[in-house]
């Protein structure tokens, strides 16, 4: 089987590499010539654990190649995946211009026996509209929707061992082609769920919106814990042991960010509004997450006696989550920006050494490791829960800082351990930390 993947962003590149690992011949396509040149040499443009080694392995095996010629790559393909971006417009709706551009470029060259698979996240009705768009041009194809559920930092595992594969199909032939593509998963008894196009499209948005709601809920519980003396980590543990709830996405922190949750919740809200369907839980999820970052700044400010001017703030971790270099809608953008606005001198260390972050934060000092970043700090602030921040030598850190104050927005340490090392500890969702509001 020959597979073509249009788009070498996060989803496209991971999907292409993993399909080649399954043993298929894969061509990944991107109109960015410099990017393609780098990929041909084995240089990947993103941080994802294990992806570089898997990419090189399959290039060397002759199963994986890269090109900027979308038309030629699609002529003999059995499946063409479209995995280009669908960023948010100003009104929150999804921008489908890249998807339609890709479809338009393929229309006169794609193998008519191939299945065209939309993997980009698109609003309900888009896949059918693409099918009709092609029919209007005299191109009759099986068009399929196959949502991705890849977590950054764990994308290879999520592709190779997914919870499920959702396939919106309208013909037995398309079902047969896609079943063959995902056959390597059958040995693991992975559920392959065939649905209508619309059901598959909505399943992606509904899944991400629900997870975003779960994150937002535990953050609101954390607020309650701070006012009543409960510990949100223990509350989350008690909740997560209930199999009906599960323990994932119950980590209190600075709110969700990244490339999916903010974009997908906004797109679903926009779609529901257009249909006149009320979704108050979704609306409140978006609103509550929006003010979460302000509360984190408030927490830092209160811990620093409401004065950041001239203070040295050591920030550990700025990517939206660990094990990625992705800065898209990261909570750190607002948090660090507010610290700078209030006169703080900010030093940053992030294990990804994210180039995206360096472009965003211009007026900061960058460090090569966590300990040097904390030299002479008036406060150490943990924003992202990288593994290496979970086992810091706190006594060594205590010797380096000017003022022993640790503000942990991920609540990664036992309170007793931090206080025993000589730090004042301010975490999320623990103890009596009722804070007074301030003007942002």
Question: What can you see in these coordinates?
Answer:
This protein folds into 2 domains: 194 residues, Rossmann fold (3-Layer(aba) Sandwich), CATH 3.40.50.720; 215 residues, Rossmann fold. With 440 residues, it is α/β, with parallel strands linked by helices. Helices cover 42% and strands 13% of the residues. It contains 17 helices and 14 strands. Helix 1 packs across helix 3, helix 9 crosses helix 11 and helix 12 packs parallel to helix 13. It is globular and about 70 Å long. A 6-stranded parallel β-sheet has the order 3-2-1-4-5-6, with helices on both faces.
Largest sheet: 6 strands, parallel
CATH overall fold name of the largest domain: Rossmann fold
CATH class of the largest domain: Alpha Beta
As a whole number of angstroms, the C-alpha radius of gyration is 24 Å
Please give the order of strands in the largest beta sheet: 3-2-1-4-5-6
> How many beta-strand elements?
14
CATH superfamily of the largest domain: NAD(P)-binding Rossmann-like Domain
Give start-end ranges of low-pLDDT stretches: 433-440
Tally of structural domains: 2
Strand content: 5-15%
Global geometry:
globular
CA-to-CA gap between the ends?
57 Å
CATH architecture of the largest domain: 3-Layer(aba) Sandwich
The count of helical stretches stands at 17
Mean pLDDT: 95
Helix coverage percent: 40-55%
Classify the secondary structure makeup into a structural class.
alpha/beta
């Amino acid at each position: 089987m020959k597979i073509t993947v249009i788009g070498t962003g996060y989803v496209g590149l991971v999907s292409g590499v993993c399909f080649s690992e399954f043993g298929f011949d894969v061509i990944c396509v991107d109109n960015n010539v410099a990017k393609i040149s780098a990929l041909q040499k084995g240089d990947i443009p993103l941080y994802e654990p294990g992806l570089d080694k898997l990419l090189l392995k399959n290039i060397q095996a002759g199963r994986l190649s890269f090109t900027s010629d979308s038309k030629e790559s699609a002529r003999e393909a059995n499946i063409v995946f479209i995995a280009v971006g669908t960023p948010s417009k100003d009104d929150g709706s999804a921008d489908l211009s890249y998807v339609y551009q890709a479809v338009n470029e393929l229309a006169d060259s794609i193998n008519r026996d191939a299945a065209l698979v939309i993997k980009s996240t698109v609003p309900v009705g888009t896949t059918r509209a693409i099918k009709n768009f092609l029919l209007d041009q005299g191109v009759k194809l099986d068009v399929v929707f196959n949502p991705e559920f890849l977590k950054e930092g764990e994308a290879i595992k999520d592709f190779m061992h997914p919870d499920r594969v959702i396939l919106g199909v309208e013909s037995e032939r398309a079902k047969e082609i896609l079943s063959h593509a995902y056959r390597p998963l059958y040995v693991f008894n992975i559920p392959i769920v065939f649905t209508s196009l619309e059901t598959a499209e909505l399943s992606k948005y509904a899944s991400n919106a629900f997870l975003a709601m779960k994150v937002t809920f535990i953050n609101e519980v954390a607020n309650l814990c701070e006012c009543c003396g409960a510990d949100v980590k223990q509350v989350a543990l008690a909740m997560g042991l209930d199999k009906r709830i599960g323990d994932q996405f119950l980590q209190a922190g600075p709110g969700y960010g990244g490339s999916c949750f903010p974009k997908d919740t906004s797109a679903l809200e926009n779609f529901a509004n257009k249909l006149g369907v009320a979704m108050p839980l979704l609306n409140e999820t978006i609103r509550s997450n929006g003010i979460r970052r302000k509360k984190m700044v408030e927490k830092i400010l209160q811990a620093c006696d409401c004065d950041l001017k001239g203070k040295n703030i050591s920030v550990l971790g700025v990517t939206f989550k660990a094990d990625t270099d992705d800065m898209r809608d990261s909570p750190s953008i607002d948090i660090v920006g507010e610290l700078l606005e209030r006169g703080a001198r900010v030093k940053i260390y992030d294990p990804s050494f994210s180039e995206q972050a360096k472009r965003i934060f211009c007026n900061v000092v960058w460090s090569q490791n966590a300990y040097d970043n904390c030299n002479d700090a008036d406060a150490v602030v943990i924003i992202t829960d990288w593994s290496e921040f979970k086992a810091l030598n706190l006594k060594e850190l205590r010797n380096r800082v000017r003022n022993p104050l640790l503000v942990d927005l991920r609540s990664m340490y036992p309170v007793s351990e931090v206080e025993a090392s000589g730090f004042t500890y301010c975490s999320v969702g623990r103890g009596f930390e009722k804070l007074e509001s301030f003007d942002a």
